Amino acid sequence: MNEPSTKVLSFVIEREIPYPPEKIWRALTQPHLIEEWLMKNDFKPVVGHRFNLRADWGAVDCQVLTIEPNKTLWLSVGSAAVLRGRKGWMAGVLCGPGAGLGADRLKSAGAIQR
């Protein structure tokens, strides 16, 4: 019998974005803007809020874990259909010139338990 692995697959993506953190934050936290670049949703920027991202093929259940306006957004992401019964998480971290960087950046990280 095969037992599930406890291995965690992780990723980090970092991008420079030529917009102020406030504008990027709106794109990450306002449902109508999230729908423009990602999927339909019922997102609310409130810790503990459970929401889903929806498309023709199905939905992904998520929850807001941590939120610090214009800086950090941590989400749990999990769906049996998408992750085959596994749980995952992802985070978006905004960094700007105030953090010692020359440009605003969006750093995403995530993991899926196998």
Task: Please characterize this protein's 3D structure.
With 114 residues, the chain is α+β, with helices and mostly antiparallel strands. The protein has a single domain (8-113), classed as Alpha-D-Glucose-1,6-Bisphosphate, Chain A, domain 4, CATH 3.30.530.20. It has 3 helices and 7 strands. The chain has helices at residues 21-29, 31-37, 80-83, and strands at residues 8-16, 40-41, 50-55, 58-68, 72-78, 87-95, 105-113. A 7-stranded antiparallel sheet has the order 1-7-6-5-4-3-2. A hairpin with a 2-residue loop joins strand 3 and strand 4 (58-68). Helix 1 crosses helix 2. It starts with 7 loop residues before the first strand and ends with a strand. The model is unreliable at 79-83 and 98-102 (pLDDT under 50).
Average of pLDDT: 74
How can the largest sheet be summarized?
7 strands, antiparallel
Choose one word for the global shape. Answer: globular
- Taking the alpha carbons of the first and last residues, their distance comes to 16 Å
CATH topology, by name, is Alpha-D-Glucose-1,6-Bisphosphate, Chain A, domain 4
Structural class: alpha+beta
| Percentage beta strand | over 45%
**What's the CATH C level?**
Alpha Beta
CATH superfamily grouping: START domain
Instruction: Determine Rg (CA atoms, Å).
Output: 15 Å
- Could you list the spans in which at least 5 consecutive residues all have pLDDT below 50? 79-83, 98-102
Q: What's the β-strand tally?
A: 7
Please give the share of residues in helix. Answer: 10-25%
Number of helices: 3
What strand order characterises the main sheet? 1-7-6-5-4-3-2
Report the order of strands and helices: EHHEEEEHEE
The CATH architecture comes to 2-Layer Sandwich
